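As agreed, record minuted below.
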Amino acid sequence: MLVAVGCALPLPALADQWSKTYTVSGRAELFVSTGDGDVLIDVWDQPRIEAQLETVGYEIDKDFKLIESQAGDRVSIETKFPDLSWGVHVGRRSLTLTLKVPRESNLDIHTGDGRVKVTGTRGNLRFRTGDGSIEARDLDGQLVASSGDGGITVEGRFDALDLHTGDGPVEAAARPGSTVASAWSVRTGDGPVTLRLPGELRADLDARTGDGRLTLNLPVTVSGSLNRSHVRGALNGGGGSLMVRTGDGPITLERY
């Protein structure tokens, strides 16, 4: 008796691609919103934005809409997914938007479920992810970054800094030349905070951890009592507000 043995091989995941180049004449203004996917940004010394979208398991215009436009130096790129998506999905699915932008650029980047990675930009910078990490290095300017669930790592020269994650570690390194021109805020609901500051930075420090230890490895003129979980004091005579918070985790402040 013969027995037929069958083996069902998984179908290869669908893939799609899109790319476009946008010429700009002044400081670039880039808005990006992806419902699901990673956003990776690097700089170059060219007067244009180069965008490339690659997907696995998604098809453009079938699974989501790609909406892009340019008005002067402002470029907008969005991927719009349906509010409700039913069905059984087999295999890996991913969406990655890779961009090259002029070094002098203002960026407003949003992703619902994915990571944000940025290197080398100078300008007003806003990064937000609902569920993913944020990594941004060699920055210069004002930065707002938030993650609903993920770690945040940033490094650069800052005039304003606002970092927040609901659940994850925060590591921020401020280069010499940074200033607290407007209030700085570094917060996590659950995780450690490590903040490296230049020796000359002037600020009024208010650092508190709900359940963790506070470690200061730079000189602070303390006002009021000093305890293991909360400190208020002045860096280099004081200046703008510098608030550091974690609900559950240690805080470490040290010299850059």
Remarks:
- Residues 14-83+92-102 form one domain.
- The chain has no helices and 21 strands.
- Confidence is low (pLDDT under 50) at residues 1-9.
